[in-house]
Hints:
The complex is a heterodimer of chains A (324) and B (123). Chain A contains 13 helices and two strands; from the N terminus they run H-H-H-E-E-H-H-H-H-H-H-H-H-H-H. By secondary structure, chain A is mostly helical. Chain A is globular, with a radius of gyration of 20 Å. In chain A, 53% of the residues are buried. Chain B has two domains: 2-42; 61-114. Helix content of chain B is 65%, strand content 0%. Chain B is built from four helices and no strands. Classes of the chains: A mainly alpha (324), B mainly alpha (123). The interface between A and B is large, with 80 and 68 residues.
Amino acid sequence: MALLQNILWAAFLLVVVLGFVTYAIYFERKVIGWIQLRKGPNRVGPLGLFQTVADVLKLLIKEDTIPNKADRFLFILAPVITFVPAFVVLATIPYTADWQFADLNVGLLYYFALSSISTIGILLGGWASNNKYSLLGGMRSAAQMISYEVPLVMSVVGVILLSGSLSLNTIVEGQAGGFWNWNFLPQIVGFIIFIIAAVSELNRTPFDLPEAESELVAGYHVEYSGFRFAFFMLAEYVYVYAIAALTTILFLGGWHSPLPFLDFIPGIIWFILKFSSIVFFLFWIRATLPRIRVDHLMSLGWKVLLPLALVNIFVTTIIIEIFK
Amino acid sequence: METYMNNYVIVAIFIALGIFLPVAALTVGRILRPNNPMEEKYTTYESGNEPVGAGQIRFNIRYYLFALMFVIFDVETVFLYPWAVAYDKLGLFALVEMLIFVSLLVVGLAYAWKKKVLQWNSI
């Protein structure tokens, strides 16, 4: 009985996430439209609200082509490998103090371990397509992963030091009582490194080198059509959801209110507010920043972010040691 | 112990659902989508031209040495995580130990930097 209930809750989350992705894409196109003084989608349905629904239906009834030269098995497997971890990481995200699907004691490690599997899917897709653009896109994705995985993982060590736990629930508990207790203030360096590395993990502008429309056409998914392509896009937007939720939890106090007298407003509202501002921030930088060159990207990761992340860890530890 | 097991049951449910969605969507798509095979549709895309040569060619990826360093630093994070979680109980001694360990790796990073490993020699 409890098992059935869990399955239903997980299916409910899947529906919520699909709804989020549908309207995140709509909202992204609208926001970028406004920033570029255009209207954005406004034809399908009132205010263009059904645009993404129409796009998904179009992808569903598109003919599915697999090139003759492609490695058929890996070509079919790659979108699934990219999508599954994106959804599975959501299992450990706590939305309020008692609404969390799986309270894993290694929550943070679980997140990072699974989210890097998606890169393998992208690399496989790029290789299996047997196309020059895809191969370059896949290789760039690997280059990006080896440059940003280490700073990303190290930037949160400071947060772990402050809370003494890897469980996401415990990390949020430690940030109760006003915004001055949230981790982004004592961990401001870690927070900035985390945001930069996280955008890079998401493969979004200014770090969208694996797809880079203007140079590699569509990079790793250039040979994909119909719903197989849709799963690559879906994985990208599910990661937007995951990273926005994770940033909220690690640095912005999760479901806690910014000022103690605002505690009467339910935690889930605060969570959604912080979550939405991060999502908006991601769309904003997409519309504002140009794409960075691949060798600049690697030297930024290794020469700036990695040393900074290491210094941040030890400065945090020394301060903890002094004020103990 | 029971809740511990239960949490991983939920993870298993998520994995099952995550696999179910693509399989279901592609199966439904198979019924809905048209199938009109033509030889031209299955050629490799290369901006409208006939593909030149093989797709899976060998080329200089230029970041082989970065990849080697990635392995080293990724292992370092494996040590940092348990250290950070248990730091409250370990105290100053653990801090000094970790400083020595990390500075050995930083010397390696500085050496690679000096040897211009962290820089692409030509574009």
